[in-house]
């Protein structure tokens, strides 16, 4: 067996999204990619919005994603370290996936030394100047009392509503989330430059959320990598201990 010497980063798979023409084929492509990287994968970081909607009730979880979860479980059982950052679509991961699969779940940001490089990672939805409505929704979705109230609603109502909201949000974002708009319109770039100037030990800043592929210098020794998505780009980054490479499947 090949040495497990590579670290992979992916974001914004949006598995199960209503606007994806063939969700089963979409999941199959993700699983095939995971299988292809498994022999050399030492660490896998998933930077949010992996699932388009997920809510764990106390005794039940949403149906679907069996092949995806099974592949993650197989990788974890074989020694791959898996970290899942919650995004604005898959916030409500509690204890089921960590316990059953053996993954680490991070809500927020994390700076970690990965094979000699200091890497800042986050989904990216909290970066920049947030609109009041979006800021309120971020607070509400993480409020424990609101979560308890939400769990009291039958999933037959909440799941279709969540998918409808996601599809509407995605439709309204078409164009804005399909291309790089320049530094003046990309809050991630000035934020990353500021962060790099204040944390000169950080080598890479990895983000998702924006559905664009971007790799650029934001400091003398720091690069910003925005991971794209698995809706249009089928993109990911790989760290081999020397360089961070942004690729497409």
Describe this structure in words.
The protein is α/β, with parallel strands linked by helices and 249 residues long. It has seven helices and eleven strands. It has helices at residues 23-37, 66-77, 96-101, 132-142, 144-151, 155-173, 188-198, and strands spanning 6-10, 41-46, 81-85, 104-106, 110-114, 117-122, 204-207, 213-219, 222-227, 235-239, 244-248. It is globular and about 50 Å long. The protein starts with 5 loop residues before the first strand and ends with a strand. The mean pLDDT is 88.
What gyration radius follows from the Cα positions, in whole Å? 18 Å
Task: Tally the beta strands.
Answer: 11
As a percent range, the share of helical residues equals 25-40%
Query: What is the H/E string?
Result: EHEHEHEEEHHHHEEEEE
**Largest sheet geometry:** 6 strands, mixed
Strand order of the largest sheet: 4-3-2-1-10-11
How many helical elements? 7
Distance between the termini: 22 Å
Shape: globular
Give the low-pLDDT segments. Answer: none
Structural class, by secondary structure, is alpha/beta
Strand percentage lies at 15-25%
Round the mean pLDDT to the nearest integer and report it. 88
Topology, element by element:
Blueprint: E1 6-10, H1 23-37, E2 41-46, H2 66-77, E3 81-85, H3 96-101, E4 104-106, E5 110-114, E6 117-122, H4 132-142, H5 144-151, H6 155-173, H7 188-198, E7 204-207, E8 213-219, E9 222-227, E10 235-239, E11 244-248
Parallel strand pairs: 1-2, 2-3, 3-4, 6-7, 7-9
Antiparallel strand pairs: 1-10, 5-6, 8-9, 10-11
